[in-house]
């Protein structure tokens, strides 16, 4: 009996992530909203007026990343950026009417993505995968957290 071959988890995870990103990017051409933009829309849909830094942390983006994302989304009139009334150095983010429409479209698209991701797997199997992926965030923290 030959020894069990170790699964190539990093390779499998990387290929899966690339394919999913390409599939989502192709769909974004039709909707006009990228996956990163959808992420910020979802955050603002739950908590409109969130601090820009909090949104960046939730999306695992550093200051340059969230700043660029906010700039692009403000230019597309999906969000508005306003100075925080209590701290002039901080910015709060708000959905615009166009942003609310884009959020509704992103939510509808998420149903399809989740259906494709979970097709053929039991709820228990998906729970294990979700738990494993979540554990990676604490096992491999952001650079500044190490």
Q: How many strand segments?
A: 3
Helices and strands, in order, run as HHEHHEEHH
What is the molecular shape? globular
Spatial arrangement of strands, main beta sheet? 1-3-2
Structural class assignment: mainly alpha
Range of helix content: 55-70%
Output the keywords:
mainly alpha, 3 strands
Description:
- With 146 residues, this protein is mainly alpha-helical.
- Helix content is 64%, strand content 8%.
- It has 6 helices and 3 strands; from the N terminus they run ααβααββαα.
- It has helices at 9-31, 35-46, 52-58, 63-75, 97-118, 123-139, and strands at 50-51, 79-83, 91-95.
- Strands 1-3-2 form a 3-stranded antiparallel beta sheet.
- β2 and β3 (91-95) form a beta hairpin.
- α2 (35-46) packs across α5 (97-118) and α3 crosses α4.
- The longest helix has 23 residues, at 9-31.
- The termini are far apart.
Short description:
Helix content is about 65%, strand content about 10%. It has about 150 residues and is mostly helical.
Secondary-structure map:
Elements: H1 9-31, H2 35-46, E1 50-51, H3 52-58, H4 63-75, E2 79-83, E3 91-95, H5 97-118, H6 123-139
Antiparallel strand pairs: 1-3, 2-3
Helix pairs in contact: 2-5, 3-4
């Amino acid at each position: 009996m030959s020894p069990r071959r170790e699964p190539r988890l990093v390779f499998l995870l990387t290929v899966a992530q690339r394919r999913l990103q390409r599939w989502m990017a192709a769909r974004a051409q039709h909707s006009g909203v990228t996956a990163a933009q959808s992420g910020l829309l979802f955050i603002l849909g739950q908590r409109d007026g969130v601090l820009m830094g909090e949104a960046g942390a939730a999306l695992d983006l550093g200051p340059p990343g969230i700043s660029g994302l906010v700039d692009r989304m403000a230019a597309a009139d999906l969000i508005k950026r306003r100075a925080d009334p209590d701290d002039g150095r901080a910015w709060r983010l708000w959905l615009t009417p166009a942003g609310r429409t884009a959020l509704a479209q992103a939510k509808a698209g998420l149903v399809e993505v989740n259906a494709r991701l979970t097709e053929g797997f039991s709820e228990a199997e998906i729970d294990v995968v979700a738990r494993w992926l979540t554990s990676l965030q604490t096992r491999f923290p952001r650079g500044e957290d190490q």
